[in-house]
Write a structure and sequence with these properties.
Length: 369
């Protein structure tokens, strides 16, 4: 997957801008608040995902304008395609090669992987951030996963509504068996997807982290289920696994009633990250935590290529800070077979780049160095 051209109109601080990146490393160089991250955000929208900054579309429209426009031409293994994305004033229009689409229909069309400073929350924050990472990564590869997840969340909300207000929903108290049966089926399939993804991501992320450290440290991942015991083989969807999930929900009902929420299930599961057998969140230095988060993202890109045959575009926003020269050199020169966009404030960080292009971004304007 290669971006051939990117055009923006009235997007945040950008009036009009064009970018033609090379197939390898592309540096977007400039001071803060000049528009570098805005370019990344515009590219990310074309994957079908929401802004990685958590912004609404209305917040992306340049002040004084009615709507923003993003147009991206990209080449996959078969042909060159075009996505046009415009939004504003409560209206959104997305086309793929001129054909109108809904936003979710973009999933898997233009794959990309993004790391921005908030990506450190995968390592430093609670389980919710790691679940979001898994859900987004798997959904790009398997759009049906997002469908199952949406169904699970709808059933979970019904069960939690009864737990939150038992007096109001007294007539539904006898329906827990129904909700548990549905949660068990959906939760089991989601658990299998997550466990399988992490099993495949582990060697890719470990290899990249090893490249960062000269293989002086061992990086590992794991899936921590609140339903299935550690070491449980989650590979084949079966009645036995579904029943095990259902029994876990049944056994936790009394606790759930006291807590007024469902305390077990994929919505409470976690992903473990360790260096030399110790949790990165607790014992890792800031540099190790950042390296772990970047290794996850680059591993995600490798895994996507291995499964789909397409190399996703890699977006690295402010990745160079807090990394030593060796790790910066790895990012600049050892990521092969991918188109990479990197934002950077310090020109000295680019001196070790062996090949690629550098663009300066100033006041929403882009110029090639």
């Amino acid at each position: 997957m290669v971006i051939e051209s990117l055009e923006l109109r009235d997007f945040r601080n950008i009036v009009r801008a064009e970018l033609s990146p090379c197939e390898g490393i592309n540096i977007l160089l400039g001071e803060n608040a000049q528009g570098k991250t805005n370019l990344m955000e515009a590219v990310w929208l074309c994957t079908g995902n929401k802004s990685f900054r958590g912004a609404q579309e209305s917040q992306m429209v340049r002040f004084g304008a009615e709507a923003f426009g993003v147009e991206i031409a990209f080449r996959d293994r078969e042909r060159t395609q075009n996505i046009r994305y415009s939004a504003g004033a409560g209206r959104r229009k997305i086309t793929l090669n001129g054909v109108p689409l809904r936003r979710p229909q973009l999933w898997g069309v233009f794959p990309a992987v993004v790391f921005d400073p908030t990506g450190l929350s995968i390592v430093r924050d609670g389980p919710g951030e790691r679940r979001r990472f898994l859900d987004a990564a798997i959904s790009q590869l398997k759009p049906v996963y997002a469908k199952y997840l949406s169904q699970y969340q709808a059933v979970l909300e019904q069960r939690n509504a009864i737990l939150r207000d038992p007096e109001r929903f007294r007539q539904f108290a006898a329906t827990f068996d129904v909700w548990d049966a549905q949660l068990a089926k959906l939760g089991t399939v989601l658990s299998i997807y997550r466990a399988d993804y992490l099993k495949k991501l582990q060697p890719a992320a470990a290899e990249i982290y090893g490249g960062f450290t000269g293989y002086a440290e061992a990086f590992s991942l794991g899936y921590e289920s609140t339903v299935f015991p550690a070491g449980k083989e989650l590979a084949v969807y079966s009645d036995a696994l579904i029943e095990e999930y259902r029994l876990a929900l049944e056994e936790s009902r009394e606790t759930d009633r006291k807590m007024r929420c469902t305390t077990k299930g994929v919505h409470r599961d976690d992903m473990t990250l360790e260096i030399n057998g110790l949790p990165v969140k607790t014992f890792g230095s800031r540099g190790q935590q950042r390296s772990s988060a970047v290794a996850l993202k680059l591993g995600e890109a490798r895994l996507c290529r291995g499964i789909t045959g397409e190399s996703p575009v890699i977006l690295l926003d402010d990745v160079m800070s807090e990394l030593d020269q060796g790790r910066q050199d790895y990012i600049l020169n050892q990521i092969r077979g991918f188109q990479v966009l990197i934002t950077c404030c310090d020109a000295s960080n680019t001196l070790r780049m062996e090949s690629g292009r550098i663009f300066t971004v100033r006041g929403g304007q882009i110029a090639r160095e």
